[in-house]
Fold this protein.
Amino acid sequence: MKKVAVMTSGGDCPGMNAAIRSIVRSGLANGIEVYGIEQGYKGLMEGKINLLTSREVSNTIQRGGTFLRSARSLEFKTEQGQSKAVDILEKNGIEGLIVIGGDGSLTGAKILHENYGINVIGLPGSIDNDIYGTNISIGVDTALNTIAHAIDMINETASSHDRTFIIEVMGRNCGYLALMSAIATGAEAVIIPEIKYNLEKIIDKIKIRYEEGKSRSIVVVAEGAGSATDIGKAFQLIGGFETRITVLGHLQRGGGPTVFDRILATRMGSAAIDGLIAGHSGVMTALAGREISYVDLDVVLSNTRQLDPKLMEIAEDLSL
Ligand code: ADP
Ligand code: F6P
């Protein structure tokens, strides 16, 4: 293997640059040239592909976002788009493709492997932590730290005014970020799509906490479980609380990666090069225990990552 390419696709996440840097330098250490594809599958179909040197990835490990940029492409979902992408890879003599992204991007990678015989390795990159087969994806730790920092700050002003804050966090259909940030900040309640909730019960519980002397309440809502605005209105109408709403939005996807994400991305990038050299294809790098392993994309994409019910129990028990 002499020439491989790397792309970032779908929603970006902190740690993507660290992964690209690791792929470029691990490639060079093994006598492999690494090409960067700009803007994911869209850029691939448009032939936006350039050789990356070691200098071009200098000073990137600590940067958020992705310097290769990311994109979503409807055209790549068609056979015509996929054939275009395969032509570009062949024209440029690319022998292996590394895709960093979420479920959608990994689905595209699986199609290139299964339908067109391209050697592909995926890296799980998404703040949502909804990718099956790995303990954690690149970007999750940074997003959680950002969310916890934001909630800590809101907590201070909430306490000064005896207010209830409804804080909406990202995660698409997955409640991981909401649940973990609720535990990490000592929130009074958490609402996630995986578990049915009864708003009146939550409101009653919070009323009791105020009567017992609490000076504020934090309710974390996963975006997939409902809108913070609607939930906030219910808190005001039914509970009579002075309620404020904060939708954290895309700040959760920005910022420099934590040390955990830098190391995870670096290890996965190195494993992607090792994997291609060893002849692996149609797989995703994964953190399993303390080791980086390879999981078939088939397995990754045909399963749903489940939340540990014990974590919900902890969130409930500790919110007294
Ligand atoms: P993420 O990778 O963050 O989950 P998306 O779901 O938007 O983000 O997927 C990113 C891109 O991957 C899409 O814009 C599309 O080009 C490609 N992709 C997603 N799903 C498929 C699919 N079923 N077949 C082929 N390509 C896909
Ligand atoms: O998948 C990452 C994510 O940030 C989700 O948490 C969120 O629902 C979505 O992407 C937002 O997408 P966009 O950046 O297109 O608004």
